[in-house]
């Protein structure tokens, strides 16, 4: 008999996007590095401080931009209730991270869980199911039309440069005014706001990857000074880059 819940701890090399669908409720997170997750025309970055709770059978697309170590947990549908939403991405509390780490001792297997292990997995579910009711605002809309999706891709490829909206519009075959309307209609954000969010999310990815200095990361995602980088980062996350990196460490 397969366990009611088990931990999935594994290190992956960079991989392109692939669709994933599992028959258990899935708490997807990383203990090192970062994952990219896309579903329903939206995308998220999952550094160690963040997790995704995915209902059984819900399709998602996962890509691995850099080496990553997963520290995920899968729950049998008879062991825990269904999550409140098919997909929720949220910040992990210190308690949740400690429970994920402790559950790592029980991988997939046929042996029944001990009473202690069952209590741990049940506690982890109770904590993360509640956290999932407060999803993270750091979502990146993926866009619906080919023009907007290509504009997002081009923008993401040029974060370190002086990327100009007019150039992006020209390359996707729209006037700046038409592309601006598409962004507001499909995404609900201006291109400038999306650019700022993409830069911060790319910075989070770099912060999770290694110990590169905050200044170098800020310059690498297109900010001219550390103060400008800190201000933009704090506006979106509530923390400075240094404070945010500290949350990756247990």
UniProtKB/TrEMBL annotation:
HTH araC/xylS-type domain segment(s): 149-247
GO terms of molecular function: DNA-binding transcription factor activity; sequence-specific DNA binding
The name this protein goes by in its record: AraC-type DNA-binding protein
Keywords assigned by UniProt, alphabetized: DNA-binding, Transcription, Transcription regulation
Native source organism of the sequence: Parafrankia irregularis
Gene3D superfamilies: Homeodomain-like
SUPFAM superfamilies: Homeodomain-like
PANTHER family given in the database record: ARAC-FAMILY REGULATORY PROTEIN, HTH-TYPE TRANSCRIPTIONAL REGULATOR NIMR
Signal peptide: none
């Amino acid at each position: 008999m397969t366990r009611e819940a088990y931990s999935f701890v594994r290190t992956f090399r960079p991989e392109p996007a692939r669709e994933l669908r599992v028959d258990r409720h899935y708490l997807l997170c990383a203990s090192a590095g970062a994952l990219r997750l896309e579903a329903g025309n939206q995308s998220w970055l999952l550094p160690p401080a963040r997790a995704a709770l995915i209902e059984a059978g819900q399709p998602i697309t996962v890509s691995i931009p850099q080496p990553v170590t997963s520290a995920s947990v899968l729950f049998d549908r008879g062991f825990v209730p269904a999550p409140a939403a098919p997909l929720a991405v949220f910040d992990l509390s210190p308690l949740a991270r400690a429970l994920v780490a402790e559950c790592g001792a029980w991988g997939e297997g046929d042996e029944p869980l001990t009473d202690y292990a069952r209590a741990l997995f049940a506690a982890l579910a109770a904590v993360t199911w509640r956290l999932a009711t407060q999803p993270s605002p750091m979502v990146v809309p993926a866009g619906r039309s080919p023009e907007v999706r290509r504009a997002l891709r081009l923008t993401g490829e040029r974060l370190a440069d002086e990327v100009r909206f007019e150039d992006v519009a020209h390359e996707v075959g729209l006037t700046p005014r038409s592309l601006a309307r598409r962004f507001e209609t499909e995404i609900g954000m201006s291109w400038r706001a999306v650019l700022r969010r993409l830069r911060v999310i790319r910075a989070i990815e770099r912060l999770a990857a290694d110990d590169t200095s905050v200044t170098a990361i800020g310059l690498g995602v297109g900010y001219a000074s550390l103060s400008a980088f800190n201000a933009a980062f704090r506006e979106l996350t509530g923390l400075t880059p240094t404070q945010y990196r500290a949350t990756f460490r247990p």
